[in-house]
Amino acid sequence: MSEYKSPVARLFIWIWRIFVGIYRAIVVLGTLFFLAMLWFAIQGGPPVSVDNNVALTLIPTGNLSEQVDETSRSLLRTLGETHPSQTLVRDLIDALDAAASDPRIPLAVLKLDDLEGAGLPQLQEVAVAMQKFRAAGKPIYVYGESFDQNQYYLAAQADEVSLDPMGALLLEGYGVYTNYFKDALDKLGVQVNVFRVGEYKSAVEPFLRNDMSEEAKAANRAWLADLWKVYNDGVSAARKLPANAADAYARDFAPELLKHSGDAAAYALDAKLVNRIETLREFRKRIADKVGFDKDKGTFHQIDFASYLRAVHREQQRPPATKIALVVAQGEIVDGESQNDSAGGDTISALLDSARRDTNVSAVLLRVNSPGGSVFASEKIRRAVQALHEEGKPVVVSMSTLAASGGYWISMGSDRIFAEPSTITGSIGIFGLIPTVDQPLGKLGIHTDGVGTTPLAGAFRVDRPLSPEAKAIAQSEVERGYHQFISGVAKGRNLAVDKVDAMARGRVWSGAAAKDLGLVDELGGLKDAERAAAQLAKLKPDAYRLEEMHPQRETLARWLGHVLGGSHVDLSALAGALPPQSGLQEPAESAVRLFRHLNDPLGEYAYCFCAPAPAGHVR
């Protein structure tokens, strides 16, 4: 006998089934829509055509980066993202290079207000592309509401620089300012056991001191002066001004601002660092007089560099099968897989091995932008480079902003190394870091005791103080790692071990100084390194294509995780939640970032705290 249901119950069941059906339909349709958007993004978005007499606009946003996730970026662009957090350096360079010989593009316009961060070597590479564009008889115009130091280096390379009447041009110079934790660690009772080789290996100083050592200050002053000279030379040459024009502008800023009644734009104009003071509307009208006015957009005829590149790529013929593989090592070198802000030893070595096995790959271009990190992960990558060399496939390294410590470790065995004069490299040294927390636990009434079959049983537990034997073992391993490092440099760069030791010991060098020392073969950018790789592989310029190798990741799952939020706790976000007025955000974020990437299985690191910032900023 069937169960009797009242009319009211049947009504609610019917309503519930309709609700569930609608919900399932929405989920299915939403999934189909998302997959369609993903496919559409992978295909490169809607077709783009290039009109005649149109201005190429370059409006970089976020940080200049060596590698971005193309699928995620295309998908976000398809869904209406207008302000990505990263701009690929090569996109700016490739767009300028292509447009230099394109009769449809008579001029270029740069707007740099949304450029948030960049290394000087990256700016130098873009500047070279700008100079080639201008050499083709095509002018470049720049407009800025204001310019910071990085933005202005690019602006200075243009034919005309326009600044808003309410704007300012701020040049500060370069500096390295680090937070030091000794007092804080002492108050907490945390004992940080440090093992290192080299008096200049200052990466561990924040845990041992409350200030920067004189050795670190001397080394930092040297390479910071090299970078500031490169910046000054670049600005003075581009603007046809006396040497050290940027330095003089920065040093005189306060008195000159008083002289100009607080009008920073007027001071920039008098210093001849900008050509015009005008509003954005006035600027757009001037450009429209050259390329015409677009009524639909309400501005001059233009095409943005991303759309232009998509159009150019669609117009190109089928690329040749022979390839030079581009592998990017960006961020701290960590054990395991790469993340968005780190270079995983497993990931990068797998990419290099894939290039070695690919019969269409004739050479490899390794782009390095890293302060180093895990020794074990760095060695994995170096071995993959060596395997390529043994296979007869040349490997050329192109150093970007930073290729120091572990970043140099993975480079030292390559056939040739290219760096910009302002690249930060060297820092050839090793350190070990083992914190112990027995004292803080003791204050809480928690004590550790027990027995073991040997003196080493439990010797490296973080809740016990390190024994003399454990400290001796750690120091011995670090010294062995240092000897491996300098021996590898000596072999790879064809130098005597004693000579490498004298220039190593953790010391940081600029690219220009490293070239003089023999740590770098040539000064130049990514394009120069690419040409060298082609020459070593005996490839003609039109007989190969440069193909970037991306890590094989689950794009859909990762993108959904990015949108919906991951399951892990974001410690950086917790640090960012500290009150801004406390002044603790930057130190907390710096500490969190450091410890998140210290995952070497043996606790040994080739790491450099040497990212420069405008003076006054914390790194």
Structure notes:
The protein is an alpha/beta fold. It has three domains: 36 residues; 157 residues, Alpha-Beta Complex (2-enoyl-CoA Hydratase, Chain A, domain 1), CATH 3.90.226; 261 residues, Alpha-Beta Complex (2-enoyl-CoA Hydratase, Chain A, domain 1). 45% of the residues lie in helices and 18% in strands. The protein has 24 helices and 27 strands. Strands 14, 17, 19, 20, 21, 23, 24 and 25 form an eight-stranded mixed sheet that branches. The chain is globular, with a radius of gyration of 28 Å. The protein starts with 6 loop residues before the first helix and ends in a 5-residue tail after the last strand. The C terminus is likely disordered.
Task: Please give the share of residues in helix.
Answer: 40-55%
Q: What would the principal axes of the Cα set say about the shape? A: globular
β-sheet strand percentage: 15-25%
Q: From the coordinates shown, what is the CATH architecture of the largest domain?
A: Alpha-Beta Complex
Number of strands: 27
N→C terminal distance? 78 Å
Look at the structure and give the CATH class of the largest domain: Alpha Beta
Query: CATH superfamily of the largest domain, please?
Result: 2-enoyl-CoA Hydratase, Chain A, domain 1
Structural class: alpha/beta
Which spans of ≥5 residues are poorly predicted at pLDDT below 50?
554-585, 615-619
Largest sheet properties: 8 strands, mixed
- Using the CA coordinates, give the radius of gyration: 28 Å
Please indicate the count of domains: 3
The CATH topology of the largest domain is: 2-enoyl-CoA Hydratase, Chain A, domain 1
Query: Averaged pLDDT, please?
Result: 85
Total of DSSP H or I helical runs spanning 4+ residues: 24
